[in-house]
Protein 1
Amino acid sequence: MAPRTILYTGKGGVGKTSVAAATARRCAAAGLRTVVLSTDSAHSLSDSLETQLTGIPTEVGPGLFGQEVQAQEEIERHWEAVSGWLGELLADQGVDRISAEELTVPPGMNELFSLLQIKEHHESGEFDVIVVDCAPTGETLRLLSFPEVCTWWLERIFPWQSRWVAAARPFAKNVLDLPLPTDAALEEVERLVRNLVAMNKILRDPALTSVRLVMTPDRMVVKEAMRTFTYLNLYGYLTDAVVVNRIFPEEAGEGYFAGWRQVQREQMELVGSAFSPVPVLTAPFLPREVLGHEMLDTLGQAVFGELAAHEVLHHELSQELSAANGHATLRLALPFTGKGDIELQRIGLEVIVRVAGQKRTIILPPAMAAYETSGARLRDGALEILFERTGDGAKADQTH
Ligand SMILES: Nc1ncnc2c1ncn2[C@@H]1O[C@H](COP(=O)(O)OP(=O)(O)OP(=O)(O)O)[C@@H](O)[C@H]1O
Ligand SMILES: [Mg+2]
């Protein structure tokens, strides 16, 4: 059986590492061979599990392994020849050595190299469950949609480029005094792209992989999670649960914290309207920091209750956006059939829909700023919101 992969992401400090470690402990306790790895370079998994971890999986308990992926090591493994060539090129341009070395890895790529560990664990067959504690935003998952572009490039341009490079090398060296990419660098790029494409296939398989968004019930945090959710849906990554962490319990609702309780209640409503029908799991603000086995298991119990942590908790993408000829349609899963007036409200990139007593709040991707909302309808158990491209955009679109 191919392993199950669960990625945790969310804004800084919301509890990703704690929830990831708690999830891994529950999976291992259920008899599944589990690895929990963090790809965020500011690692805190060692503290959370109270065991010093390294770049390779270390056994921290029965059937449980922990790993803090070292970006630098991964870069050296996957990008050495390209770094060498680029470094030389930049040094030739007068960039000093240290800066040149820094510049040889494109921004945002660090975590991508670390995520390749997921593919390696998939292939090794050593684990039943891979739990990933990701960096604070979904940015990296957006980057992962590049392989589609890369494949196109690889298949059409690459054969020509390699040939062109071979032909141009003597000329470039003697006449331009410029080092062209070495064969080793070109091979490395090709291998990397193939690896990313293979990894993306694993991550987009909803039977194997899902993302869980961790948040606290604070407005800014929830909004950011909503944006990430939009991107995840857009790029076809399944979100199978959201985890709202650090909710003030009722007994904290007296006196000083009464106001906070009220604010958190409001944010919980927004969470419901933004992520439904994806299950919303919750955990209270615990009386102590979540460090060590006991606290992790308390957190795990609060989040999952009777649920099995490794299971796919929701099976469908919640939003689907399609666009053609200046028209766009956003399909939202609405798990009910029935008729009712649809009330639509649009504020910037935010769309609020009310239908048959339900409310949905969606944040549109920035490209949708060029579209006006033109209507909504219920069709095949889904709500469809219709958009028309406006102004210059519409004209540009029609000339295609
Ligand atoms: N439910 C909770 N109750 C009390 N403290 C918590 C809870 N969840 C997490 N914490 C504590 O909050 C702090 C931040 O948690 P954690 O490190 O898991 O967040 P993170 O999202 O991984 O942060 P970063 O973005 O910095 O990696 C830690 O000190 C952790 O012990
Ligand atoms: Mg963390």
Protein 2
Amino acid sequence: MSAWLETIRRVEALEDLPLDEVLVAEIERRRARLGARPPIHFFTPTFKAFASSELASCGRNAWPAVSITGGACKLQCDHCKAKILEPMIPATSPEALWRVVNEIVADGARGVLLTGGSNHRNEVEYGPYFPVIRRIKDELPGFRIAVHTALVDGSTARAMEDAGIDVAMMDVIGAQDTITQVYHLRRGVDDFEATLEALTATRMKVVPHIVVGLHYGYLLGEWSALEMVRRHRPDALVLVVVMPFYAPESRPFVTPDTAAVGRFLMDAREALPELPLLLGCARPAGRARVQIDTYAVLAGLDGIAHPSEGTVELAARLERRVRVTPACCSIAVGEDVMALEDTGLELDLEAVLAHERAARAAAAGLGGIRVVAEGAAPTGCGGCAA
Ligand code: SF4
């Protein structure tokens, strides 16, 4: 048994988790070649017990998502069918956006994630909204605006910059078959690279996403997407794993093979050793999620949103410096990815274990702290219920 597998088995929540043991040993070897293990930053509202008064104000209302098309989208991609837009706050005119922003600011929002459905060219038509975005930034300079850009050319990217947008996000797709079949889109891989190039030529923070398993649950263009990111050096890269809840029966998705995902996470770490590399909150639920999170910690990602049970403890046991931000949406909006070293609270293994004992005891309704034998891992991480 490899040393890291032994460490994993000391974490109670992970002691029986099925893992690809060959992959665990391989990641351990590959990580050793990369040298020092970076700190790891967890974004999770379940660590509120550690919150300072400032961090306690973070919460679900801090970074609401607003759609400028409401629930409408012309692309109807096979994994989404525009369902991702449905729970968002609609603001389908510039006037409505001004009103919505003022309402959410009054409700405590510190920023907004602005998105919308695409036209047939995978463009979100933000043009009419740029003057009101400029007005928001002029009147509320501390209010952060992150935008899911979709595909843009150089002039639209510069218009976004001039409007005062803080963070630009886009999905990078590296396989033509995925663009054609999953997105039903007559654009090329080159258009995604040109978008990344245009965005990184501005002063905006650029945080692209790669959706792992986007080709019906299989990995296809992910490595090509990584190469694009490597060529254009954005501020951070967010990796998410496809969750095809809305795929039609005629075009089903499989749950991605978690070992394939884990190996890709290690490939991404090796390809981009200096770039902040984050695992976003979108990933499959249940055992697959725990396996992916475990591989993410081993591979040395810099941040994980909503870690599953056992993940924080594993990181501490692997002697990673552990930081926790008790907020749920920071990766989505991109604020914390810009300042990974300066945000959150630093925890040591004892603090993590104490928190997890208390969380486990509270969840079990024991009304007290569980007694744990010396040297054993008492509990897993509080983790996200998802
Ligand atoms: S373009 Fe975006 S919102 Fe529209 S269906 Fe595709 S993934 Fe969903």
